[in-house]
Amino acid sequence: MKYLIDFIVLALLYTFVFFRKWKIKGKDILLVNTLMYVYLSFVLYFTLMPIITSLPFILNHPYTPMNLTPFIDVLTGRGDFFRQIILNVVMTMPFGFLFPLTQNRTANFSRTFFFCFLMSLSIEILQPLINGFRSSDITDLITNVIGGMLGYGFYVIFRPITYWILNQLKARN
Question: Whole-prediction pTM value?
Answer without folding.
Answer: 0.92
